[in-house]
Every structure is written in structure tokens, then in C-alpha cells.
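Q: For a teaching handout, I want to show students what a protein-ligand complex looks like in C-alpha cell form. Below are the inputs, and the small molecule is flavin-adenine dinucleotide. Please produce the holo structure.
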Amino acid sequence: MVHAIFEDLDIVIVGGGICGLATALALHRKGMKSVVLEKSETLRASGGAIAIQPNGWRALDELGVASKLRSNGIRLERIHEIYLNGGKPKEKFVDYSNIGETRWVKRSDLIESLAQDLPLGTIRVGCQIFSVKIDANTSFPTLQLNDGTIIRAKMLIGCDGANSVVADFLELNPKKLHPSSGVRGFTYFPNGHGFAPELLRTIRDKTTAGVAPVNDNLLFWFVNHQYNYQDSKMVEDSKMIKQMVSCPMGHIARPVSERNVTVAGDSMHAMTPFVGQGGSASIEDAVVLARCMARKFQANYNNDHKDFKRKKMIEEAIDEYVNERRMRLVKLALQSYLLGTNMLMFGIIVVICEDLLLQEPAS
Ligand SMILES: Cc1cc2nc3c(=O)[nH]c(=O)nc-3n(C[C@H](O)[C@H](O)[C@H](O)COP(=O)(O)OP(=O)(O)OC[C@H]3O[C@@H](n4cnc5c(N)ncnc54)[C@H](O)[C@@H]3O)c2cc1C
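A: Here is the structure, written as C-alpha cells, with flavin-adenine dinucleotide included.
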């Protein structure tokens, strides 16, 4: 008979993506130790570049990693769009000076910056979580790992992306909401690329091709094909439309915590990539969650609190975090979703509003 190995840990973060690492770093900056469990054998940094918007930079500033990333990247001045449908191409410019600081950073640079300031031993790779349960005796969460280990945690934060096991446990039913496919990559120009500091994209039907300078030598490029409702029978299927539209909103409007378990990043708010907010919002989540924890424990997390007291304090901190994020995320998700679908149709808005109004507020 094989006996399970049990391990007791304090704060456990599932997922070593942008949000998991940012959360570990935010907690570390507030004097709280955590362990990040990542299922891949290495920290994944695929996906080319990511646009970080002003809210993301503010959060990275708080984490103390912004200045190095900034110094590696060009600040964008505008979006330059060229529409190729119909006869003559039409151009549109969106000035970034109204939006604020936006830069593209290599995902690998972002992941490395977040990871390298973490204490040794914080990140464990090759650790896939299969399931989450609540221990009937202690009421603390337990996690089952791929190698049979069972981890008993005092606090569990799911940063395991859009198909999150932790969000499943919380019955958030997360879904991938990116009905697009594409290729992306970098081209390095040793003598400089000569492109303007702008996101230049051409749009023809449902295909978008674009380039954005990361720095003077590195150019990020991408081609995306967006599937919209006309591509399928979805437009005739009101149930499917409701499911797709309500998903990000439902996530936020439902309780996103239970018994010392919560979620952050895409596990909490899977957004379409069209407004480039998923990453920035994930880093914001991390900062806010750590701030709520620090406020509750008044920088004394490591004090010898009795288990029941610690449990209650963590629950209260999570409640504050959820409340603080709720309206912020509703706004971001709504903006992201409507931009992504291009469906500012009355019917869709009614479905969204209906969902928002019908959900029970968490408390
Ligand atoms: C094409 C595209 C372009 C985008 N562009 C932008 C952009 O320009 N700007 C922007 O801000 N956002 C952008 N986004 C969104 C952004 O990438 C995400 O919001 C962000 O990466 C979310 O980070 P996360 O850590 O929450 O999730 P993820 O990055 O998905 O990380 C989750 C991590 O959890 C791990 N994991 C999953 N399950 C388990 C498990 N059971 N056990 C252990 N580990 C597990 C995964 O291996 C992964 O490392 C884009 C998204 C896409 C798809």
C-alpha cells in the first residue's frame, strides 16, 4: 500500500505565471512568505511581448521591478490603425498621451524580473495540482499534487490561469474566452529597426497584423485571426452568447473566495486579449491582495497566531480584497469584452446587465 506524503505549508500560490509570481513578490515585499507551485518544468515565458498599461506600471512600481523593465523598453506614443477593407485604406490614430504610459515588454523579461526578487525556494516547478478540498477537521484547504503529495495550506491563492483548478473548486467555471488564433514573434535589427514608437496594425476582415517596437532593436510582430459570432452558429444560439458574455462578469459578481481560498489573475477574470489588460489587471490583483493581507496582519503575519485566529484574519483579508477588486474588474472586463466582440448590440448589453444585477454579491 502506498502512503501519501503530507506537507504543511502556509501561503500556497498555484501557478507561476505573471499573476502567481507577482502575488508571491507582493507578499514577500510585505514580509509574507509563500510557495508557488507551477506545473511546467520551467517558468513559461512564451507568447512574445505583452503591452503593459499605466495601471500595470503603477503595480510594477509597487513591486519594485518597474524601473529595470522600463529602461529596456520604448514608451509608445500612439496606436496607428489601417483598415484595408473596401476601396481606399482608412487610417485611425489613438494618442497614447491620453492613455498614459504604455510599453511592450518581453514576457520572458517580465517573468524573470518577478521571479528573481523572490527568496530561494519560493518557486517549485513540475508541481501540478489535481484537486482542492477542504479538510473536514481543520477547515483549511488541502491540495493533491501529481506525485501523490498532499499539501495542507493555511491560505490558497489560485493563479492557475483561465482553466483553473482552484476556480473550479470555487465553482467559478472558468472558460477560455479567446476566440482567436495567431502567430507572433520578434525580429532583432542589429542596426535599429527605424519603426516609430507606435503600435501599428492593419485590419482586414477578421485578420489583424501588427508590429510594435519593444526597444530600438527589437520589434514585436503578430498576426491574429479573430473568430466572431458570424463564424459559427453562435449568433443563432442565445444560450451560447449568454455563456460567453456572462462568463467574465459572472466570475466577478459571484463570491470568489471560500474558506481561505481565493483566485487572482486570469483564474478570476479571463479577459479577451484585445485591450491588453489581462496582464496589468493580474499584477494589480497581486498588489491589492498583499496590501489587504498586510493591513489585516499589521505586518505581523509571522506572529504565532492560533490557527482559528489566523484563519479568520485571512478570511477577512480575502473579503476586503474581493470587495476592492469587484467594481474595478467589472469595468475592465466589460471594456475588454465589448472591444473583443465588437458586439455593442442592445441585446448583448441587456444580457450583461441582467447577469450583473442578478448575481449575489459576495461578502
Ligand atoms: C494572445 C494574447 C495576447 C495578450 N496580450 C496581452 C497584452 O498585450 N497585455 C496584457 O496585459 N495582457 C495580455 N494578454 C493577457 C495576459 O497574457 C494574461 O491575462 C496573463 O498572462 C494572465 O496571467 P496569469 O498568471 O493569471 O495566468 P497564466 O499566464 O495563464 O499563468 C497560469 C500559470 O499556472 C500554471 N498552472 C495552470 N494550471 C496549473 C495547475 N493545475 N497546477 C500548477 N500550475 C498550473 C500554468 O502552467 C501557468 O504557468 C494576452 C493574452 C493572449 C492570449
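A: Two things your students might notice: The radius of gyration is 21 Å. The chain has nine helices and 16 strands.
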